[in-house]
Amino acid sequence: MNVKTLMYVLKRILLALLTVWVVITVTFFVMRAVPGGPFTGEKAITEAAKQALEAKYGLDKPVGEQYVTYLKDIVTKFDFGPSLKLRGRQVIDVIVDGMRTSVKLGLAAAGIALVSGIVFGAVAALYRNKVIDKIIMVITTAFVSMPSFIMGTLLLLVFAVKFHVFPANGETARGLILPIITLSLYPMAYITRLTRSSMLDVLGQDYIRTAKAKGVPPAKVIFGHALKNSLIPVITYFGPMLAYIVTGSLVVEQIFAVPGIGRAFVSSITNRDYPLIMGTTIVLAVLIVVMNLVSDILYKVVDPRITLE
Questions:
Q1: What pTM was estimated for this model as a whole?
Q2: Cβ-based burial of 14 (10 A; exposed 0-12, middle 13-18, buried ≥19)
């Protein structure tokens, strides 16, 4: 790694830290600006009990003081605090438990989406305007246009309710198959369209025509030059997409009852569980900025002509 690349990486790390800090700050103050609180909906709770609970979790202190304490605990101890609703559990434990499932789910879906999308996109580009190209474009357009909750519900009704091929919940290994398929369909379709568009552009470049004129084998032209150089838009999209999928699609995890981080996030919002909302939001923000940084560095690996500045 040369000096220029190292400086670029250091600059991006500093920007990433700044981004995460902004996310923490905005989420913290907006969350507390919303009327109500985590103990407002408690059944048959007295005002004295409510005040006691707020004092126990430090919610009776000024918001600015709570913010400083929260930042200090994160930076010095990596402590997100206790969950306000899941009594006796720390937020970090809830996140780790959810991530165990979400990571398996997300990596499998992302891998399927990436491989399938690149293959289908390359085939569509090589057979442009042919029947197979039109079929692929129609199918991918449908998947891009169809929301995940519609596709998830459809798969659930057909393969779990109607034919009983897979379980209706995602608490077992077989039960994760339908959520994985649901999560992979949209990014697969999007990557297919990106690959096709980018590869058509690359196939029209002068160096591709030159390689063909020199008698370079078609396979080497396609896989050694065209496909490799057409992956930059895919890399741009794949980084944030991977972070999003790994943290779990909120809707998909709810539909299939997958005990992942997305389900925990929805539950935290419903219950106004401040520490759990903050913890899951921070994890998502960190994953997104990290994957964006990795994507930018991969540009250089795919195409050495790119200069990182």
A1: 0.81
A2: exposed
